[in-house]
Amino acid sequence: MAATTLTAATLADLPxxxxxxxxxxxxxxxGIVHFGVGGFHRAHQAMYLDQxxxxxxxxxxxxxxxxxxxxxxRMAEVTEAQDDLYTLVLKHADGRREAQVIGSIVDYLxxxxxPDAVLERMTDPATRIVSLTVTEGGxxxxxxxxxxxxxxxxxxxxxxxxxxxxxxxxxxxxVEALRxxxxxxxxxxxxxxxxxxxxxxxVAHAMITAYARRKDPELADWIxxxxxxxxxxxxxxxxxxxxxxxxxxxxxTGIVDAWxxxxxxxxxxxxxxxxxxxxxxxxxxxVQVVDDxxxxxxxxxxxxxxxxxxxxxxxxxxGYRYAHEVAGDELFAGFTRAYMDREATPTLAPxxxxxxxxxxxxxxxxxxxxxxxxxxxxxxxxxSDRIPTWLVPVIRINLQNSQGGQHGELERxxxxxxxxxxxxxxxxxxxxxxxxVDTGRAEDRIAAARRYPDEPLAFLADRDLFGDLIDxxxxxSAYRAHLDALxxxxxxxxxxxxxxRLPR
Length: 504
Known about the structure:
Elements: E1 4-5, E2 30-35, H1 39-43, H2 45-54, E3 62-67, H3 73-81, E4 86-91, E5 97-102, E6 105-110, H4 115-123, E7 129-132, H5 153-160, H6 170-184, E8 190-193, H7 200-215, H8 217-226, E9 232-235, H9 243-253, E10 255-256, E11 261-263, E12 268-272, E13 288-290, H10 294-317, H11 323-327, H12 330-344, H13 356-367, H14 376-380, H15 383-390, H16 392-403, H17 411-424, H18 442-449, H19 463-466, H20 473-488, H21 491-501
Parallel strand pairs: 1-10, 2-3, 2-7, 3-6, 4-11, 7-8, 12-13
Antiparallel strand pairs: 4-5, 9-12
Helix pairs in contact: 4-6, 6-7, 7-8, 10-12, 10-15, 10-17, 12-21, 17-18, 17-20
């Protein structure tokens, strides 16, 4: 099969079984500026917009991607070379592949090289939404206090910068663009977080407004009164693109794509209907546009995301390296489902339109998809941003329920935390090194984990991550017992023993 480099000029040469844009991309104008163009954004938000455009809708809602980090330079190079096109590949569990070319991103700006172009795009009246996938850490929220954490040097520099100084951060660009729009009468845009954090709109609102208050209190007041920050729940497993993904795409289709995106078939987006200047008709392509996102996002964070952490640490320690391997192991799959049923589900309110039993069964099936090849290392990364949001609230609620006379279980949650501590020691059960990826905290987490056994609770002592859990004897007793077992008998034996004595 002849190889074809993906560009606008080669769209007509796509194989018959690889659909591409049927709309005129030249007629698409930018309505959304997006910070953090990565695999998830391109498998999710950009995909939904492409589907709308295929229906002849939302052609004034094209995306302009923006990168502010040094690591975004590569995306800038790829998007320029490929005219912002990329291939999205759905990997089905039975081995089938569905490839399509997505055209909803029509521009990309690398902010460090042209900050004025970014601000010009953001202050254009046609830009009505600024969306974000900047990861949990990109919001600068303290895990312990919930307040704005301004310790990042780039944030400090933006706050202290004189007027007219080019911003360095996402917050800096958003607030400066809003200042200019306020001053020239353009009016606000909507800030739409698509990050996988609880209350992402609330978090974006609180942190961006706190940043603005440090810089310009009057502007902060204007943002408070005029800028919507809708909440959303997003879901699609999207592993990192590998060289083998690129090679497989070329072999199967002839398409040469420097940065395709691979993902599972499942996708979900629940979005709060709160916008300043309109929005695309997302509901026409399956987005659940609702008044209250919270029940859906808590369902996902405590069932899907926390379960991902369970299989990541325990599976890695047991010798697995991919999510589907752990989820295909009856022991670990059973443990994960029991965590969902016995500890996570009791902390959830009813979720309108969702059968939780079906949802949980589907999660196990999704985790076990062998074609996704989602690495446990990816799932275990950045745990200091994830565990406090995804699992610690489950533990707290169950502790409170126990104190109130209700039945609140926490043994499995305690084992997940203990497995994180064991993983963070940086050596697996076979004595092989583990690369602990935890931006800004890896050294502290490794050092705390390695204080075992002399200080068995050292890992829990960080109150920014765990609050006062270290003061609760019921939790610490379970945690210590599980950590001891992980060291003495290993992950498989520890889970086997636990599942043999706990109700399911």
